[in-house]
């Protein structure tokens, strides 16, 4: 083989080798900087404080960002209510995790004026203004189930007083001793809020609320239904207005 051809083939081999090396190096660099094929599983931040969630995110090489806040009275203040992406999602390192938290400072609202309302009217007014009906107290009065006074934290509540939204407001109602009659409704099979509504609709109070061993998380409490009540429902056995009805809830 002539020397010129040998040199040509040698140079060509070198060029091909360099070209292949560049391709391999480029692919390696791309994988290095994009972490191709590598992903992290997003932790569950729900229910954690922002500080706890931030620490957990940093431990997983993720970045937490609070984008909004709501106020739910039954959830810890400052806790994570929602996250994007959801727990278990696969993401790249240093990915931003967006969270919505429960507001630390609840919104204020002016107390309603319920004196003179019937119990049904008072419940509708409380619901419309995002307040919660608390305990029903009965005092002797000719105007049965008419609101005589409204209470907040065991003290008289003047209409227009600024209090936390979703606050519990108790009511003192009148009752004619000759008509102090209430019947226990059937609440087995109902979720908690529906059971409470039925009990107060019958001029009674919710007593002890229990959950059995099947209920282990906050999400479970929303899905649970009443499986026992005390006293049992009756259309004949008479109770006094304001009596207690205790319930037990389960996922079964």
Can you describe what's shown?
- This protein has 252 residues and is an alpha/beta fold.
- Helix content is 27%, strand content 30%.
- The chain has three domains: 40-102, Trypsin Inhibitor V, Chain A; 107-180, Trypsin Inhibitor V, Chain A; 181-252, Trypsin Inhibitor V, Chain A (2-Layer Sandwich).
- The protein has helices spanning 3-34, 50-59, 119-128, 192-201, 218-223, and strands spanning 40-41, 63-70, 80-84, 90-91, 96-102, 108-110, 132-140, 147-152, 155-156, 162-164, 168-175, 205-211, 225-230, 244-250.
- It has a four-stranded mixed sheet. Strands 2-5-3 form a three-stranded mixed sheet, covered by helices on one side.
Keywords:
Trypsin Inhibitor V, Chain A, four-stranded mixed β-sheet, three-stranded mixed β-sheet, single chain, alpha/beta, 5 helices
* Strand order in the sheet with the most strands: 7-11-8-9
Helix and strand string, N-terminal first? HEHEEEEEHEEEEEHEHEE
Structural class based on helices, strands and sheet pairing: alpha/beta
What is the β-strand count?
14
- Largest β sheet strand count, sense and barrel closure: 4 strands, mixed
Strand fraction: 25-35%
CATH T-level fold name of the largest domain: Trypsin Inhibitor V, Chain A
Describe the secondary structure blueprint for this structure.
Elements: H1 3-34, E1 40-41, H2 50-59, E2 63-70, E3 80-84, E4 90-91, E5 96-102, E6 108-110, H3 119-128, E7 132-140, E8 147-152, E9 155-156, E10 162-164, E11 168-175, H4 192-201, E12 205-211, H5 218-223, E13 225-230, E14 244-250
Parallel strand pairs: 2-5, 7-11, 12-14
Antiparallel strand pairs: 1-4, 3-5, 6-10, 8-9, 8-11, 13-14
